[in-house]
Design goal:
The complex is a heterodimer of chains A (101) and B (254). Chain A has 101 residues and is an alpha+beta fold. Helices cover 35% and strands 32% of the residues of chain A. In chain A, the strands form 2 sheets. Chain A has a 4-stranded antiparallel beta sheet with strand order 1-2-3-4. The radius of gyration of chain A is 13 Å and the shape is globular. Chain B is α/β, with parallel strands linked by helices. Chain B contains 10 helices and 11 strands. In chain B, the strands form 2 sheets. An 8-stranded mixed beta sheet of chain B has the order 7-8-9-10-6-2-1-11, with helices on both faces. Chain B has a 3-stranded mixed beta sheet with strand order 4-3-5, covered by helices on one side. In chain B, a hairpin with a 2-residue loop joins strand 9 (141-151) and strand 10 (154-162). The radius of gyration of chain B is 17 Å and the shape is globular. The chains are: A alpha+beta (101), B alpha/beta (254). At the A-B interface, strand 2, strand 4 and strand 5 of A face strand 9 and helix 6 of B.
């Protein structure tokens, strides 16, 4: 159980960050390109509205480049994450993609 | 000692409560409204979800409709909360985020503000402690959950203090994640939460709870709370923000 289980909805994967919060992803990729992404959970991200910017940034990008894009996104901004990290976002997105492929 | 405004034990529906919190925060942009502590209760009872939560995965919408409970999304992150009219006091704290009393670091500020609640609970005889990131536990069980945002140049933190807990009702409206339970190795819902009444094994009134929390805020923050009302500008903002909180676009956005 130490990791993830399938959520109630198709391709939704939840991941409980150790000593942190719960983060979930619903992701879909076609031909190696991320076509759908929704990130949810009980984590904290300040400012909150930037979650949408992150999703918009990832959409249409190559899955192979997600790590770099996510790291860039957080490096460039003043976004503060609490209970979750950029690495956790990447991890749960990859789990979701692995589960739906 | 600084004077802060107390908006005392208003009983309102979910969209009004959330609109009041945001209105007080937003009003800072253009007027010097006072630093504020609110204590309040939700009528009808309601479920609030955190800003980032998937509402369909967290809330049993049909059960809420059956019981007549409001469903709302907060502007703060964090988890889903059942605001039981008969079992819970909610508080909020709104102050400029550069107020000398408020740590700039978010986790430190949780600790400080949760300290006010811990002091208040102690007044009642409840020994509790801060459990990072944003919880307070008593006897190993959660008695308070908290969430904050920083926007409009202010810190807004709100949270819940359980006075009574109807565990069956809580878990009939909230869906509990499998990974969260497995992570915490918890066997049953009853082992996860407690309340002032459950902890003390006696009846404690809302007024006693309110009085204790006020003492906790005043002592820990070294402030005096003076009962006050919303300004006219804040009232106008409440009307505007209520529309957002009542809209499906907001509540069901995620």
């Amino acid at each position: 159980m130490n990791g993830f289980i399938r959520g109630d909805y198709m391709k939704r994967i939840e991941y409980k960050v150790p000593d942190g919060k719960l983060v979930a992803a619903e992701a879909e990729a076609i031909n190696g390109v991320l076509t759908k992404i929704k990130i949810t959970g009980d984590f904290f991200m300040h400012p909150e509205s930037t979650i949408k910017d992150l999703e918009d940034t990832l959409k249409g990008k190559q899955v192979a480049k997600l790590e770099k894009i996510i790291n860039n996104f957080f490096d460039k901004s003043n976004i503060q994450l609490i209970g979750v990290s950029a690495t956790d976002f990447l991890h749960v997105i990859k789990l979701s993609l692995a589960d739906s492929s | 000692m600084d004077d802060w405004r107390l908006i005392d034990m208003r009983i309102e529906d979910a969209s009004t409560q959330m609109a009041i919190d945001e209105a007080i925060a937003y009003a800072r942009v253009s007027e010097r409204n006072p630093n504020t502590i609110r204590l309040y209760r939700w009528n009808p009872s309601a479920v609030s979800v955190g800003y980032f939560q998937s509402i369909l995965n967290e809330v049993d919408i049909d059960a809420c409709k059956k019981f007549g409970f409001d469903i709302i999304r907060r502007i703060t992150g964090g988890g889903a909360v059942f605001h039981d009219y008969n079992g819970e006091i909610t508080y909020s704290l709104i102050a400029p985020d550069d107020d000398p009393k408020i740590p700039r670091d978010i986790v430190s500020s949780y600790k400080l503000i949760c300290g006010c609640l811990i002091d208040g609970l102690k007044e009642l005889g409840v020994e509790s402690e801060f459990k990072p990131i944003n919880d307070i536990i008593a006897g190993g069980r959660k008695i308070s959950g908290n969430a904050q945002t920083r926007r409009y140049g202010v810190i807004l933190q709100h949270g819940t203090v359980l006075v009574d807990c109807d565990v069956n009702k809580i878990f009939s409206v909230l869906k509990v994640s499998g990974v969260k339970i497995s992570d915490k190795a918890i066997k049953s819902a009853e082992e996860r939460v407690t309340s002032i009444r459950k902890y003390l094994g006696k009846d404690v009134s809302f007024e006693e709870g309110r009085n204790a929390l006020i003492k906790g805020f005043e002592n820990r923050l070294n402030i005096q709370l003076n009962p006050g009302e919303l300004t006219d500008y804040e009232k106008t903002l409440v009307t505007q923000f209520k529309k957002k909180y009542q809209s499906d676009e907001w509540v069901y956005q995620r």
